[in-house]
Amino acid sequence: MIMVGHIYLMQRDSELPASLSPAIIDGLLRGELKFDGVVISDDMLMGGLKDFTLQERVINFINAGGDVMLFSDYKIDGRRTAELVTQLVVDAVGAKQIPKERIEESEIAAEQIGEHPEERPRHPPERRDGDPLGNFGNKVMRQKGVQHTGRIF
Question: What is the pLDDT of residue 134?
Fold first, then answer.
């Protein structure tokens, strides 16, 4: 499982943050790095996505290859968040803004969460630096010639 943040990787996509970018999720993570696990978002209500409507956030994240969205609030505009987001997804699939197959792929991926807890490390790996991408992320980004902006929201 990997979480994508709302940072901009300008060399890969100057228009969308990583969490909404097909170039990052589908292209870099799933394509170049061959990551086949679950991709989760950071909180979809964070300020890093303030320039996008909730509908745009949901549609772009799913179409970019994301599987599980996280939300910090139980209610949005008086409605339960889960109901509102579910309705946005159903409407977008009905309007052919999200392919039904993408939803099915995410469902299969999400079912993997927690399947093999014995394979998870007992303690998270230690971070050797304070960089937001961590050691592995920085190494991969350097190998690919990508520098992140350091803007994390």
Answer: 46
